[in-house]
């Protein structure tokens, strides 16, 4: 069976609306990264605009992948996220950036122009969930079509001005219910998050219709994935940047 973008998107739309999961069908799913992005775009068209994007890479030099975060899934810290909205409550400490001006489709930006468009850097917690039964042992392209397993982002409001410095060695601390789970320097599998930011903006201008002012771009986990229970409170702290907090009431 050939790839059926509308069918794949329909399954994901229904699962997101109903807070349910489904088993990815053996046939008709995405065959390549471009197929997964097509499904993302159809889901986004049905469920509302993007408030942000997540980008990441498994290691330095890999081609990154990217996924939208719905506007309703970008929530200011301290955020309250009802556990009933999530099948799995995953959390990751991340560094996010705000693009402060409109960047139109087709814009060709050198590094100076791209950096000038980024106004602030933020502490963030990605809230991780899946609509796919059998996760994580499912096709990676289905994960990518499912917005790379995201539910949303709890983000430090306002952030701090970004001074254009690299952030690959930024210190981070992740605490759950007051207990420190991770305390380290760096930790992003891609190394330097700024190159992920640059790649994401160029991809969005080239292939996804541009970047509206106010868009958040979060640049991958610095602590790995932790799964927590309902009722938990999670804090991510990046000294010199700030902190983000999210609580998951049962």
Protein architecture, described:
This protein is an alpha+beta fold. It has one domain: Fumarylacetoacetase-like, C-terminal domain (Fumarylacetoacetate hydrolase, domain 2). The chain is built from five helices and 16 strands. The chain has helices at residues 5-18, 33-47, 111-117, 140-145, 193-207; strands at residues 50-56, 65-70, 74-76, 79-80, 90-99, 103-104, 118-128, 150-155, 160-161, 171-176, 179-185, 210-211, 216-221, 226-227, 233-238, 242-247. The strands form three sheets. Strands 1, 2, 3, 5, 7, 8, 9, 13 and 14 form a nine-stranded mixed β-sheet that branches. Strands 4-16-15-10-11 form a five-stranded mixed β-sheet, with no helix packed on it. Strands 6-12 form a two-stranded antiparallel ribbon. Strand 10 (171-176) and strand 11 form a beta hairpin. Helix 1 crosses helix 2 (33-47). The longest helix is centred in the first third of the chain and has 15 residues, at 33-47. It is globular, with a radius of gyration of 17 Å. The mean pLDDT is 97.
Would you kindly provide a brief summary of this structure?
This protein has 250 residues and is α+β, with helices and mostly antiparallel strands. The protein is 23% helix and 34% strand.
């Amino acid at each position: 069976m050939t790839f059926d973008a509308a069918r794949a998107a329909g399954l994901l739309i229904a699962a997101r609306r109903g807070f349910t999961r489904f088993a990815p069908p053996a046939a008709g799913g995405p065959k390549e990264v471009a197929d997964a992005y097509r499904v993302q775009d159809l889901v986004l068209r049905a469920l509302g605009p993007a408030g942000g994007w997540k980008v990441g890479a498994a290691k330095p030099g890999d081609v990154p992948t990217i996924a939208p975060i719905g506007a309703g899934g970008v929530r200011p810290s301290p955020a309250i996220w009802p556990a009933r909205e999530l099948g799995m409550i995953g959390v990751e400490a991340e560094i996010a950036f705000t693009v402060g001006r409109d960047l139109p489709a087709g814009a060709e930006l050198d590094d100076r122009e791209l950096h000038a468009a980024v106004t602030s850097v933020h502490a963030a917690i990605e809230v991780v969930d899946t609509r796919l039964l059998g996760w994580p042992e499912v096709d990676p392209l289905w994960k990518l079509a499912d917005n790379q397993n995201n539910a949303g982002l709890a983000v430090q409001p306002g952030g701090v001005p970004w001074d254009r410095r690299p952030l690959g060695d930024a210190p981070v601390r992740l605490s759950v219910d007051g207990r420190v789970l991770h305390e380290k320097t760096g930790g992003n599998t891609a190394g330097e998050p700024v190159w992920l930011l640059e790649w994401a903006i160029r991809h969005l201008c080239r292939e996804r219709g541009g970047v509206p002012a106010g868009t958040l771009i979060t640049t991958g986990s610095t602590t790995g994935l932790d799964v927590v229970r309902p009722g938990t409170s999670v804090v991510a702290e990046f000294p010199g940047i700030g902190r983000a907090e999210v609580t998951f009431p049962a």
